[in-house]
Amino acid sequence: MENNRNDHHEEEHQPNSRKEMSRRQFLTYTLGGATAYMAAGAILPMIRFAADPILHKKTDGDYVKVAEVSKITNEPQEFSFELKQQDGWYPSTANLIAWIRKDETGNIYALSPICKHLGCTVGWNNNSNFPDEYHCPCHGARYTNVGKNLAVSPKPLDTYKVKIENGWVYLGATEPNTEVK
Ligand code: FES
């Protein structure tokens, strides 16, 4: 008799206990989910803000206004220009040089002065022993007016991407020289 009463007593409590557990779990999940949602709402904008300069990295499509088209001759001329750069969070300005010329049909080309041997700076017509050539003072590399490597250097000079707009020459990134056959 006594046993039966105890059994009955336990049976009465079991469903209650199960109900209590599931309510507690429900609250835990709900509060946990809401907290995670609020935390994500606060943290994601911070991550995005921090990563913003990286996301807006300089692209190949950036051009700099360098010279008037009317000033460009068949003889290569040296032009200096500034390139604003963003390295992560740090803005800086690079001072660059381009040797710009046009061919017989009026097409405009711009050469990088960085020697493809070990990176010194070449000049046009700067060695009387080798007239009408680019010459590198470091180890004597020589290039033709289109940048073709004649001595020492294993490769031709790089070219800048060129864009002509409203009578001005704009230069973009450097790329391997395709003018040299
Ligand atoms: S760096 Fe120009 S010849 Fe060596």
> Which architecture of the largest domain does the CATH hierarchy give at level 2?
3-layer Sandwich
List ligands, each type once: FE2/S2 (inorganic) cluster
Report the mean per-residue pLDDT as an integer: 82
Helical segment count? 1
Order of helices and strands: HEEEEEEEEEE
What is the CA-atom radius of gyration, in angstroms? Answer: 35 Å
Structural class: alpha+beta
What percentage of the residues does DSSP assign to strands (E)? 25-35%
Q: What is the terminal-to-terminal distance?
A: 108 Å
Pfam family, one: Rieske
Subunit structure: The main subunits of the menaquinol:cytochrome c complex are a Rieske-type iron-sulfur protein (QcrA), a cytochrome b (QcrB) and a cytochrome c (QcrC).
Keywords: 2Fe-2S, Disulfide bond, Electron transport, Iron, Iron-sulfur, Membrane, Metal-binding, Oxidoreductase, Transmembrane, Transmembrane helix, Transport
Transmembrane segments: 26-47
